[in-house]
Design a protein that fits this description.
By secondary structure, the chain is of the alpha+beta class. Helix content is 17%, strand content 21%. It has one domain: 2-Layer Sandwich (Alpha-Beta Plaits). The chain has 6 helices and 12 strands. The strands form 5 sheets. The chain has a 4-stranded mixed sheet with strand order 10-1-12-11. Strands 2-5 form a two-stranded antiparallel sheet. The longest helix has 9 residues.
């Protein structure tokens, strides 16, 4: 079995948001929908934390953590949110989703999911991004799929490919020879809300 995950180098990330835009474009996300977001520790977007002259600014990208023990999967009454047994990717089946949003309530990582209240609308009159990205539907929950349609072709997620600072790494966490495994073994890292017991598959290298 494979367990795909990310290692994100916080020291290299420069907050350019290329990963967020690459995700939006590759997955043809609707207007107002973002599966990957950029945050800083300050009081406003792109703002530093601390008091002058002792300021610090770090960028944290936030998306589905593709947990090894996902709370969302446990509460979905119809199996629309599920963990792929072969890859560990937490996926959404739009055709099964009944729009109850139980997965959104159970997920401890606020804002990584969105709900399409209306038929998705787009800024352009034509679809953008990858031709085989899944079609978006009304009254369903969406989130990062780890670019599942790209993984199926042996390609890396769009956010990894697009990062100009080489701050994002992806691969099999259970393979000791993969780049992500080597980074997790050799670098100090943090995870989001480890006390929740979800066992995220995203490691922030510090």
């Amino acid at each position: 079995m494979t367990r795909y995950g990310f290692a994100i180098d916080v020291k290299r990330c420069m907050g350019c948001m290329t990963c967020t835009v690459a995700c939006k474009a590759a997955n043809n996300l609707a207007t107002g929908v973002w599966w990957n977001r950029m945050f800083t520790e300050g009081d406003a977007h792109d703002a530093p934390s601390g008091e002058y002259p002792n300021l610090k600014r770090e960028f944290i990208t936030m998306a589905c953590q593709h947990c090894d023990n996902p709370a969302c999967v446990k509460v979905c009454p119809v199996g629309a949110t599920y963990k792929d047994p072969d890859t560990g990717v937490v996926r959404q089946d739009y055709d099964k989703c009944i729009g109850c949003r139980m997965c959104m309530s159970a997920c401890p990582y606020t804002g990584v999911r969105s709900f399409n209240w209306e038929e998705p609308s787009y800024p352009f009159d034509l679809a953008v991004g990858d031709q085989d990205s899944p079609a978006h539907q009304k009254h369903v929950v969406e989130k990062c799929t780890m670019c599942w349609h790209r993984l199926a072709k042996g390609e890396e997620p769009a956010c990894v490919v697009g990062c100009p600072a080489d701050a994002r790494f992806w691969g099999d966490l259970d393979d000791p020879d993969s780049a992500v495994s080597k980074l997790v073994q050799s670098r100090a890292w943090e995870q989001l809300l480890p006390e929740m017991g979800t066992k995220p598959s995203v490691y922030y290298l510090v």
